[in-house]
Amino acid sequence: MEEIDLSDRVRVAILGATGAVGTELIELLENRQFPVKKLKLLASPRSAGKTIIFREEKLVVEAVNENSFDDIDLVLASAGSSTTKKWASIAIKAGAAIVDNSSAFRMDPQVPLIVPEINPEAAAAHRGIIANPNCTTILMAMAVWPLHKIQPVKRIVVATYQSASGAGAMAMAELESQTRSILNGETPKTEAFPYPLAFNLFPHNTPLNEQGYCTEEMKMINETRKIFNEPQLRLSATCIRVPVLRAHSEAINLEFETPFDVSVAREILSKTEGVKLVEDWQANYFPMPIDASGADDVLVGRIRQDLSHPCGLELWISGDQIRKGAALNAVQIGELLVKENLLGTPQKTISVN
Prior knowledge:
This protein is of the alpha/beta class. The protein has two domains: 137 residues, NAD(P)-binding Rossmann-like Domain (Rossmann fold, 3-Layer(aba) Sandwich); 189 residues, 2-Layer Sandwich (Dihydrodipicolinate Reductase, domain 2). Helices cover 28% and strands 24% of the residues. The protein has eight helices and 15 strands. It has a seven-stranded mixed beta sheet with strand order 10-11-9-12-15-14-13. Helix 1 packs across helix 8, helix 3 runs parallel beside helix 5 and helix 3 packs across helix 8. The chain starts with 9 loop residues before the first strand and ends in a 14-residue tail after the last helix. The N terminus is likely disordered.
């Protein structure tokens, strides 16, 4: 890896700067005092010309082009798979490292898939691109990994309750609009989703495979195996979209080889960085999306013995899809690259098709 001089800080570009995650990336770079020397905001031509404030400076959004990455060290991308694939090779050739929030390269064996609290060492092998996992995968992994380290998990069964934020700013606005329409006795309009989400829920509307699992569910299965480096890990997921504006929740059932004491699990999670234990049994108060929204930590609670299996545990979690589920994890990867001096031009680059 060719080292770059970090004494004068890092030149950063955000690809997809005007989207929900892009907006959060900008806020996090400022709030976390990321060592930004220069920030370039990139988006599609229709968003070019918009202005965004960063550290009291008004920045103009630029339409991404072939010269956009010539003076950039780090690209934080959240603009969709096709956009990343279009510009990745150009950015890498220009000497930039990319942290990509899309699914474009997550399962590429040459691309590290990283949650910094779990597998930071994988970053050293990057060839220009590091993939940010799917939001539901990140949130689940944050709660399961600390227990898996103590006693390997044999099987995971998870059901997700995914907010509108997972589909972007337009979906969030649509949920608000549909809610008003229904309360006013009007027929709700649907564009971002195939069905009305207000006062409704439905299985995640990504394509189904031959076994009846949707793409979102397979992401959780395959990505968790890769992050944990457990290719044979047994995992089943059911992903549901619910009428919550922001922050996802998940019901997680874990099976171990031998019983896992509930009190030990609770103690481990209460001391885990990036996880906050939320349990008030008398008040029946546990993690909720309303509390997770805008928060960095994944909220974990209602930890209990699975009554159907002596080696099973039940967990309930809520986490902000836009923050730890997307933007925060990407910024943390960027911080890792800076700290370990892993920016610069890699010795080998991946093949971008």
